[in-house]
């Protein structure tokens, strides 16, 4: 796999991420179920300054190396969480894209859910030539304290997510097939879109491009075939 000169400075690039929403309160230590306040469907993830004033990187950085194809790094999902796609499913899906879209891709990592990361969980993130996908609850049910924002609800329902209000809590329920569809044809392709956006600089413009990319090369390209 080739990689271009811009990867040498990619460490300084601002990561792009698909947000799931901030955790709000635990629903019991055993179940590890949580209710989250609904937030924007996607947002930029940035490195943060910790209490000591040191820069805190949002993920493990993978330096670009000479390789024929991208690598997959798989971390344990974490207690009560699971990865919803496999390495082979990721490779098969990306093989369907035009080759030049993944030429510079170095790593796709299935990341773990840690206690610190659970404060601001994500579906996925792009950082330089690397893409990170995050686990979901084992139950495949996400729970929110408020009604979802319209765009969040529209996007999730496009891929088969089912919303219902139960006792004042909004639940987003997935099946094995619909969550794979969502991750492979939306989350993954959205992050690949960010990786291929070399023109836009503002958050709004980059999100607009990645959203278009996910619709064009994810949603439309995948309709009519099974995941």
TrEMBL record:
Extent of Basic residues compositional bias: 1-10, 26-45
Location of the region described as Disordered in the Swiss-Prot/TrEMBL record: 1-55
Superkingdom per UniProt: Bacteria
Protein's UniProt name: Uncharacterized protein
Organism this protein belongs to: Planctopirus hydrillae
